[in-house]
Amino acid sequence: MTVASLTRLRRGLTQQNQVALKACLLLFLLALFLLGSRLPAEYAKVAAVQSSWRPEGAVPISFSDRWEVAPDAPAAQAIVLTALNFWRANLLGMTFGLAIGGAALSLLLTVPAVERALGRRGFGGVLLGAVLGAPLNLCANCAAVTSEGACSRTRAPEAAYGIVLGSALWNIVGLTTIAALFPRPIIVARIVFSLVLTFVALTLLSRALARAHPLDPAGVDMAVPSVSWRDAGVSALYDWWRSCVTLAARLLPLMIVATLLAAAARVLVQPLFGPLSGDTPGGIMALALAGTIVSIPVLFEIPLAIIVTQLGAGVGGVAALICTAPSIGIFTVIMMARMAGWRLAAALLMATFVLGVAAGALAHALAIFGG
Predict the structure, then answer these.
(1) Which end of the chain is less congested by CB atoms within 10 angstroms, N or C?
(2) pTM for this one?
């Protein structure tokens, strides 16, 4: 065997070691997040919703707002406090999202086949992204951070937005809680809305509006010339750390701006949560608009839906809110626009609103005709 052959073999073994270690790191971080944080928190939220708990303050943004916003608070103060509550509610999820996204990016830089899979266009890319996103149990805000790490090289919008929508709309804990607490027309409307937005609207709009980003093969192999598991482990951790720092430097300034804009939108949309009178076309459209504009943590659409029900909203308005609130919002649009352009981001935001109105109308019709 020649020296060149031995070198190639040694390099191949090193890359296999790194792939195994990076995959284990990614799975460890995901398991730590789900078992140590997300699932216990979700079950606690479900228990809170099923009890007498209700959000406090004039502009509730999460299950445990630290700073209460008074009804007569000046707009600037309300926006700042809402932004702080938003950041506090999403800090843990975004931190894990950054760590998981960094691990995914580090793995992709070593495994070209996985990167090519995430670069798929059309329905296949959407389906892959949704399947990868669904187990994450992240809200759309935090999923956008993870998606940036997983798809930052390919910039294929189908997988990138698929991860966000899969995590935000196909959360099994959220779906089962909605099915347990709300009438059947609402869960039917939510499932139909999720199917159409994720697999139809995203596929068609990506094909029509997304910028083309050819896969850049440069910099794929990050392996070091050593077969040692120890050296491969050190290199894998270094690659993960470097990927996390790269993502943080790229996203943190944008996240701060997006948080302030999302908080301003939440304060401005508050009048839409005023007293309602059943299912009117205007009421359904108002709640669909409110849900489209706001950015919320995971499962917070459920207490919001309970609030508007107590304010007099009908089945259609509740369905419109419970569909649009966890979907593409202001924060997500700002974070994801760099992936495939502002046109696609704006179109998906508009599609969220339009399909939310349609979901409200569907729930209303099902309620009337005994669906």
Answers:
(1) N
(2) 0.76
Contact predicate 216/153, CB 8 Å = yes
- What are the extents of the domains in the chain? 10-48+91-368
Whole-number average pLDDT of the chain: 78
Q: Cβ distance 190 to 315 under 8 Å?
A: no
For 25, how many CA atoms within 13 A lie in the half-sphere containing its CB?
26
For residues 283-311, average pLDDT: 83
Q: With 90 as the cut, is the pLDDT of residue 138 above it?
A: no
Cβ contacts of 83 within 8 Å, gap of 6 or more:
259, 260, 262, 263
Question: Are 157 and 338 in contact, with CB atoms under 8 Å apart?
Answer: no
Residue 259: partners with Cβ closer than 8 Å, 6 or more residues away: 83, 86, 87, 331
Higher pLDDT pick, 262 / 164? 164
Token readout for 114 is 């996985």
Confidence of residue 6 (pLDDT cuts 50, 70, 90): very low
By CB neighbour count within 10 A (0-12 exposed, 13-18 middle, 19+ buried), where does 369 fall?
A: exposed
| Sequence-ordered alpha helix ranges (H) in 64-211 | 75-108, 112-118, 123-133, 140-151, 157-169, 172-181, 184-195, 202-209
Residue 206's nearest CA partner among 369, 349, 348 is 348
* Cβ contact 299:46 at 8 Å: yes
Residues 6+ apart with CB under 8 A from 21: 229, 232, 233, 236
